[in-house]
Design goal:
With 190 residues, the chain is of the alpha/beta class. It has one domain: Pyruvate-ferredoxin oxidoreductase, PFOR, domain III (Pyruvate-ferredoxin Oxidoreductase, domain 3). A 6-stranded mixed sheet has the order 2-3-1-4-5-6, with helices on both faces. Helix 1 runs parallel beside helix 6, helix 1 packs across helix 7 and helix 5 packs across helix 8. It is globular, with a radius of gyration of 16 Å. 41% of the residues are buried.
Length: 190
């Protein structure tokens, strides 16, 4: 099969690395060659974090170039807009509608851009936007945004519910498994 490319983007502390780890484990169990590469910006300070997940019969490089991402999963709206040039013409962006102010906005040096969803749609981008934060809170923790988005991502795969649940069990601490499964379910069902 042709190599598929998924970018997971967000802000440090949102759980992007756990999401990429979970997805990577699942893809490995399905027999794919998988490469995962993490790019940390100022992740410890709320800066941009990007993870590349590439899978297929044989993957030679972990890096996704501009115009190659089949799916971008974004944990924050501005991060979705920031990486649109990486999306392939047939690709889709799955994004959380949550807004996390970057440092220039916090310090007053800039304003958070308005109407980002509308601007991306007007640019011809296939956008699947959900309020993942509200769903995570409904599941029991605002920290479960990552599993809400993985639930949403699961709609783009033909893997079974059991396969996803096994990947969750293998990726999160035992005491958080049921909460994360619920967050995943809510993301999948919206």
């Amino acid at each position: 099969m042709k190599t598929k490319n998924i970018m997971i983007v967000g802000v440090g502390g949102q759980g992007t690395l756990l999401a990429s780890k979970l997805l990577g484990k699942l893809l490995l169990t399905k027999g794919y060659d998988v490469k995962v590469s993490e790019v940390h910006g100022m992740s410890q300070r709320g800066g941009s974090v990007v993870t590349y997940v590439r899978y297929g019969d044989k993957v030679y490089s972990p890096i996704i170039d501009k115009g190659e991402a089949d799916i971008i999963v974004s944990f924050e709206l501005l991060e979705a807009a920031r990486y649109t040039e990486y999306l392939s013409p047939e690709g889709t962006i799955i994004t959380n509608t949550q807004k996390v102010n970057p440092m220039p906005v916090i310090t007053g040096a800039a304003q958070y851009p308005e109407n980002l969803e509308e601007k991306m749609k007007n640019a011809g981008i296939k956008l699947d936007a959900i309020d993942a934060l509200a769903l995570a809170q409904q599941a029991g923790s605002s920290k479960a945004v990552n599993l809400v988005l993985m639930g949403r991502l699961s709609k783009y795969f033909d893997f079974t519910q059991e396969e996803w649940m096994t990947a969750i069990e293998q990726s999160v601490p035992e005491k958080f498994i049921s909460l994360n499964k619920e967050a995943f379910r809510l993301g999948k069902e919206v």
